[in-house]
Amino acid sequence: MKELSFVLQYIKKPRATGAILPSSNYLADKMIEDINFEQARCIVEYGPGTGIFTEKLLENRQRNTTVMLFEYNYDFYNLLKDKFKNEENLIIVNDSAENVGNYLEKYGITNVDYVVSGLPFASLPKEISENILKQTKIILKRDGKFVTFQYSRFKIKFIKKYFKYIDLKREFRNVPPAYVLNCINYNQ
Description:
The chain is an alpha/beta fold and about 190 residues long. It has helices at about 1-10, 15, 25-30, 50-60, 75-85, 100-105, 125-140, 155-160; strands at about 40-45, 65-70, 90-95, 110-115, 140-150, 165-170, 180-185. Helix 3 packs across helix 4 (about 50-60).
C-alpha cells in the first residue's frame, strides 16, 4: 500500500516526490545511525513522504524529544497525520521546509539538534534548494547535523556551499543505491 501511494504521488508530481519508490529500511538505518538520541531534544525532518525515516526517529528518540515534520505534499501530509496520530511531541506541518524558521518560532523551539531530509535536491528548483539550505544552516545549533541522501554525487558540491564538512556514506541496498550525507554545522 505504501509503495502504491508513493508511485501515484511520483506520477502526479515527479519533481516534488523525487523517487518512484519509498526509501528502504537499510537507507533509513543509515540515515539515523549517527544521531545521538540520548542528547537530541529537537529533530526536524524534511519531506518524510510515507514516514520510513520518521518511524526510525520516533522509535529511537527520548520521550521528551520533539520531532517536527515538514511535508509539502498534501496526500502524504494526511497519511502522516493518520499514521502518527497517537504520537506525543510530534508536530506535522503541511508546508515547504523553506518556512521552517517560522514554525520553530511559532512552537517556541530555539534549538534544533538534527535535520533529516528526504528532499530531492537534484530535482527541486535551485532557488528553493538554496532557501532550504540557508534556513537549515540558521536553525541548526552549532555542531548540529543536517543528514540527507541523494542518488548521485551531483549535488554534493552545491550542498558544500552551506556545509563545509560532509561525511559521505553509500547504501547499496536501496533502490536505487543512495549516498548519505552527514553535514556538520560548524560555522554558527
